[in-house]
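Hey L., structure's done. Input below.
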Amino acid sequence: MSLVSAPSKDTILILTDKEAHRVSLGNGFREAGYDVLTVNGPAALDRFQHVTPSLVVADAHLYDVQTLRLHKALSDTSVVTVRDHEEPCSEEICLGDLERGADLSLCNQTARALVARVRAVLRRRGLPCLPVGQTVAGGVHMDIVRHEVRVNGRLVELTPKEFEILRHFVESPHRVFSRQEMLNHVWGEGYVLEEHALDVHIHSLRQKIEANPTKPNLIVTVRGFGYKFRVES
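Output:
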């Protein structure tokens, strides 16, 4: 395990004993311009002493967030827990990770999707600190733990799918999502669903969060491609 990294780059520490995950995630983060360190299994973490990473991606099956926080180099580092399709995953399990101190808890994410979400977490480092499991953009305040959404202070009731769609947008403002990419994010890759189904959910979501749903200002259509969440500068 190399402990040398370029000081100008963010360093991602990947904690997993699965070789395929280390390779795919490592390649994904390197291609995105990050330095990468990998640790194979909890015992190997004891060798990690001299570098404080920018963010930790940890296999939730092997690593407990509270235990990671006890490690001197990781006590104040953002932690993203991940699970793949071979591991049990539910909203309650993910909420448990957040309540134990994870900054983000993800299931069945592609390497590309995970890199995008890590970027969103790192972008928020210089912003005012929010409680764990909360994110804010464009007047939309999402409490992931409580599964609550407020728009300009107004509590809004969303369905589980609407909540997940909005969460993807708010965590990556201004990023354009293709319809297929959003379907993969929310329903999972390989799930057979027509793109029109996403449009129906987007329409319903706009009815609940937009000041004028007929002229949306937050969730905007990028013609010929998909959608993005617009935040006024």
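Residues 1-129 form a domain with the Rossmann fold fold (CATH 3.40.50.2300). The CA atoms of residues 179 and 199 lie 8 Å apart.

-- N.
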